[in-house]
From TrEMBL:
Recorded GO MF terms: hydrolase activity, acting on carbon-nitrogen (but not peptide) bonds, in linear amides
Keyword Hydrolase among UniProt keywords: yes
Highest taxon of the lineage: Bacteria
SUPFAM superfamilies: Carbon-nitrogen hydrolase
Every CN hydrolase domain range: 11-256
Protein's UniProt name: Hydratase
Any matching Pfam family: CN_hydrolase
Keyword annotations of the record: Hydrolase
InterPro entries reported in the protein's UniProt record: Aliph_Amidase/BUP, C-N_Hydrolase, C-N_Hydrolase_sf
Keyword Lyase among UniProt keywords: no
């Protein structure tokens, strides 16, 4: 099938919200595989998993991270996902703890039926991540796939409007966001999460489909807020927010090729066409 035809077709996307266990890579990979198979059985073609889904998040030390991190794409975690994607004929985006030489990155890998496609390394590190990881050095790649043009962001990257604008300007249609959202300062626990507000705004102001897969649970005293969601390129939710505490899988149907049309707000206004690049670049 020509790429242009494939991209015009609807795509079923799934966000897997679960609770990785710190340090239990084999068990986490088993849990991931089980849930990916469930999503595939329900028709998912593009599946998004949380940040650091293979290792857990709250590291005690650099030595602990060194025992858990693996290379991409040749490490155990990456190879398990690559094999699974090829077997099921699906595309998977998952957060992974990556080691490259002597350097550690909070990364996400995209793989599909054809194997390994690419890696994104988190650019904006949150809190104690700065003790263990280096800031990403691969920029903001956009991967051209038969499903559409896919970009990746991780968690705190979503607090920076430049992340989504740069991806949109590079041609991205769908942004996959592996994340481990935590409560924000002064956040009313009963109100809509700031993370959801920010990503709804990013989807709307850039005309992008955005799929956020969060984790749940409390790890070494750090609570995570769940509330994964899948957003239309208009900014309105297609699925979610998911539970604040329970594991869940969200599903939505998107059409990546519809992005240009969704950026047209009316006969006079186009989100990209109206940009005053003569003023602000």
């Amino acid at each position: 099938m020509p790429l242009e035809t494939a991209q015009s077709n609807p795509v079923t996307i799934a966000c897997i919200q679960f609770e990785p266990k710190i340090g239990e890579v084999a068990a986490n990979l088993d849990a991931i595989e089980e849930r990916v198979r469930t999503a595939h059985a329900k028709g998912a073609q593009l599946i998004v998993l949380p940040e650091l889904a293979d290792s857990g998040y709250v590291f005690d030390s650099a030595e602990e991270l060194a025992k858990l991190a693996r290379p991409i794409p040749d490490g155990e975690s990456a190879q398990r996902l690559i094999t699974l994607a090829a077997e099921l004929d699906v595309y998977i985006v998952s957060g992974l703890a990556e080691v490259a030489g002597d350097t550690f990155y909070n990364s996400a890998m995209l793989c599909g039926p054809e194997g390994y496609i690419g890696t994104y390394r988190k650019m904006h590190l949150w809190y104690r991540e700065n003790l263990f990881f280096e800031k990403g050095d691969l920029g903001l790649p956009v991967f051209d796939t038969p499903l559409g043009k896919i970009g990746i962001a991780i968690c705190y990257d979503g607090w920076f409007p430049e992340t989504f604008r740069q991806l949109a300007m590079k041609g991205a249609e769908v942004i996959c966001v592996p994340t481990n959202w935590v409560p924000m300062p002064d956040q009313d626990p009963e109100a809509e999460a700031m993370s959801n507000i920010l990503h709804k705004a990013a989807a709307h102001s850039n005309g992008l489909f955005i799929a956020c897969a969060d984790r749940v649970g409390t790890e070494r005293g750090q609570p995570f807020i769940g509330q994964s969601l899948i957003l239309d390129a208009t900014g309105w939710p297609l699925a979610g927010p998911a539970s604040r505490e329970e594991e869940d899988i969200l599903y939505a149907v998107i059409t990546p090729s519809a992005v240009p049309a969704k950026r047209k707000l009316n006969e006079f206004n186009d989100i990209f066409g109206d940009r005053r690049s003569d003023v602000y670049g």
